[in-house]
Fold:
Amino acid sequence: AQKITQTQPGMFVQEKEAVTLDCTYDTSDPSYGLFWYKQPSSGEMIFLIYQGSYDQQNATEGRYSLNFQKARKSANLVISASQLGDSAMYFCAMTEGFKTIFGAGTRLFVKA
Amino acid sequence: EAQVTQNPRYLITVTGKKLTVTCSQNMNHEYMSWYRQDPGLGLRQIYYSMNVEVTDKGDVPEGYKVSRKEKRNFPLILESPSPNQTSLYFCASSLSARTSGYYNEQFFGPGTRLTVL
Structure:
């Protein structure tokens, strides 16, 4: 069965430093997509970055990069040069076929 | 403006009183989905629709119904709400579930906070 695990319920990072949010997944399907979404305190869900299971290179989008280690089934989000506005809940998600599952989320606090 | 809209945004109701949460998208997306968000559980998929008149169950479909009669609309129906359906509900849409091996990101509505007393 599909499963997504985010082991860090909460994390603190100093402004301007980099932070890694962990995500591991479990699937037997060779084809899947991995996503990270951000949920600020205002509640909306914002797409950040995508990695396909067949992609050879790690995805990057501005200050966001995805450290994809397929053999270890991990898809960690790296945020470089953290900003106060990065304080939010972050969700890792996996889509397989037509279904999507989400992890429980990591709440990130950025300190000034 | 490209968007997913949900109504109502907030709803307090009582056990057993049928309700419908509407969802509409203006991006001509084929795929639409409903999720519920509960603390410590992340988002869980309730139902999804691959296209008009094609729907299927997600991980937590019990107590919910959906329909997809038009491409833009995907209402969520609670025929007899119970307190355990108190939650934050999100509707989402994407171009399709997958395009040429690429899984498409989902665009989310603003959420509907439902309280069932």
